[in-house]
Amino acid sequence: MNEQIVLAKKTVFQTPTDTRMGIFFIQKGLLRLSRLNEDGKSFTVGLLGPGAIFGEMGEMALGSRAVYIEAMQKTTLTHWSATRMEEMLQACPPSLKEMMFQLSKRLGEQEERMEKLAMESVRDRVLHLLVQLCQRFGKAEEPFWKLTVSLSHQEIANMVGATRETVSLALASLVDEGIVLVSRMSIAVHASRMVDKIRECK
After folding, report:
1. Euclidean distance between CA atoms 102 and 121, whole angstroms
2. How far is Cα 168 from Cα 86, in angstroms, rounded to an integer?
3. Would you say 172 and 166 are in contact if contact means Cβ atoms under 8 Å apart?
4. Which of 30, 121, 147, 174 is most buried per CB count within 10 Å?
């Protein structure tokens, strides 16, 4: 059996000390996964939208172990308990079970990369965040990708673990470079220029 869970905007669904067990499927909405850096600032390790799966059961964690999970929009989830998922996996071919565990391992490695990113400059963190947002929530309007989610400078600051003022300066710099277009609650990214800048950051 599964259950449906509806989260209001800004609901904190999980904390690092209160991990949600089982597997969750996002029907609609948007979740932010975050951690705290050494200075106690929150930084984003992932954004999950409709169709995404997360959760934890036994040794397998799908990108949500020891993180804060917050609803950025009203979000509807479908939840399968760890016991039910174990029963379902037992009925699966061994190759599928191995694939799930390999996916869990890869997500863990991705989390480590995101933690290292949190130590970079605010400008670079904003760049990487915009790339992640474009990949998940971008709409092509050549030569730009326009984000289909509305984010304020404060919300972006919360995601990258910085102040609103610092993020505003970083965005202004990206606008001057022709990488980003910013209007009220709307951001568009120049695809090819963004890729070039990301390569420079590496």
Report:
1. 31
2. 47
3. no
4. 174
Rounded CA-CA distance 150/93 in Å is 42
pLDDT reported for residue 159:
81
Tokens of 46: 């992932």
pTM over 0.70: no
- Reported as a pLDDT band with limits 50, 70 and 90, residue 53 is confident
> Which residue type occupies 183?
S
pLDDT band at 117 (very low <50, low <70, confident <90, very high): low
Query: Which residue shows structure tokens 């480590």?
Result: 112
Main-chain phi, psi angles of 48, to 5 degrees: -120, 130
Class of domain 2-113: mainly beta
User: What tokens does 196 get?
Assistant: 């070039």
Q: Taking the domains of the chain in order of start, what are their residue ranges?
A: 2-113, 122-201
pLDDT value, residue 70: 96
